[in-house]
Amino acid sequence: MGFWLEYFGGVRLKDITEANIYTAVSKMKNRKAKERWESHVKAAKKKGQEIPAYEEVPVSVATKAKHLALMKALLRAAERDWKWLEKAPVIKIPPVRDRRVRWLEPHEAQRLVDECPDPLQSVVKFALSTGLRRSNIINLEWSQIDMQRQVAWIHPDQSKSSRAIGVALNETACKVLRDQIGNHSKWVFVHTKPSTNPDGKVMPKVRKMRVDDNTAWNSALKRAGIENFRFHDLRHTWASWLVQSGVPLSILQEMGGWESIEMVRRYAHLAPNHLTEHARQIDAIFGGCVPNPSQSGKLAIAK
After folding, report:
1. Contact between 38 and 45 (Cβ < 8 Å)
2. pLDDT reported for residue 303
3. pTM above 0.70, yes or no
4. Known active-site residue 267
5. Which of 34, 232, 274, 280 is catalytic?
6. Which domains does the chain have, with CATH numbers?
7. Is residue 140 a contact partner of residue 165, using CB atoms and an 8 Å limit?
8. Which of 32, 160, 193, 210 is catalytic?
9. Which PROSITE patterns match (predicted)?
10. Which of 70, 72, 169, 258 could be stapled to 173 by a disulfide with Cβ–Cβ 3.0 to 4.6 Å?
11. CA-CA distance, 203 to 200, in Å (whole number)?
């Protein structure tokens, strides 16, 4: 929403056309790439190194599609529900290919955990055991946890779907939480050691973690020898492990707080077991005889 407010702030609804909507999207900047560059600049200054030049990174089709979908929904509501427009602009949303599913094998995940310093190590363990998003973990408060019932909850204003999410806590997650008791009265995951910023400012010993701090994360990935892996991929890893263990997609949807079943179908290929019964219908055609690859010759079909 911030992008559209910045671009169309003060513009009357009736003056917003398809043309200037598409123009706005074409001028979108990759904010995360700029933030990563700024962090590299700070690190370079701290070490007295040459400041790297900024290279513009294009905005993904998925990001553009998401912003166009939001604008389309708003303008449609302005026409049909609020009656503020006689006719909403026709906005075409570009098709987005299936998003990647990058996940780790258990031994890779353990290697990554071993390379993470605390409190990041605890955060990573908690992510792998609950599937929660990074912001939900970093902003988790003790008031959101019931250790006796082994549940936690994410408030509607904290969830991507804008709905409350109940989180079942397994023993792995509970152990991580027990290890945090006493560190802070409000926040679950906090730094417990002092540090110095690139600008020389000394940070307090106990302080809240930052969602956008990737320094320790990137270093841990490098030491673990893991490439092309984002923090959000821990959520994919959690979901992939559950599906491969036989958890139905409908249950996974509820556990992960996804808005629709379509959003979890990306994991379906990891558990084709439910198709085995149907695949066995071919056995009847072959009379229950399964061809042996080690033997040559034609398959004899039972008559």
Report:
1. no
2. 41
3. no
4. yes
5. 232
6. 2-80 (no CATH), 106-272 (1.10.443.10)
7. no
8. 160
9. CB (PS51900), TYR_RECOMBINASE (PS51898)
10. 169
11. 9
Active-site entry in 125, 134, 191, 235: 235
In the residue annotation, 258 being an active-site residue is answered as: yes
Q: Are 232 and 133 in contact (CB under 8 A)?
A: yes
Helices 215-224/120-130 angle, 10° precision:
80
% helix, strand, coil for the chain, step of 5: 50, 5, 45
CB 271 within 8 A of CB 286: no
**Which member of 7, 37, 103, 267 is catalytic?**
267
Alpha-carbon distance of 71 to 11, in angstroms, equals: 14
Catalytic residue among 133, 134, 191, 236: 133
Out of 7, 37, 103, 258, pick the active-site residue.
258
CA distance 63 to 29: 11
Task: Please report the pLDDT score of residue 280 as a whole number.
Answer: 82
Measured in residues, the chain has a length of 303
Q: What does the pLDDT profile of the chain (303 residues) look like in tens digits?
A: 788 998 999 999 999 999 999 999 999 998 888 888 888 788 788 778 888 888 888 898 888 998 999 999 999 999 999 999 999 999 999 887 766 789 999 999 999 999 999 999 999 999 999 999 999 999 999 999 999 999 999 998 888 777 899 999 999 999 999 999 999 999 999 999 887 766 667 777 789 998 878 999 999 999 999 999 999 999 999 999 999 998 999 999 999 999 888 889 889 888 777 677 778 888 888 875 555 545 544 444 444
133 is annotated as an active-site residue: yes
For residue 89, cis peptide bond before it (omega within 30 degrees of 0) = no
Phi-psi region of 236 (alpha: psi -120 to 50; beta: other; left: phi over 0): alpha
Is 235 part of the annotated catalytic residue set?
yes
Diameter of the chain measured on Cα atoms: 84
Q: Within 13 Å of residue 226, how many CA atoms lie on the same side as its CB?
A: 26
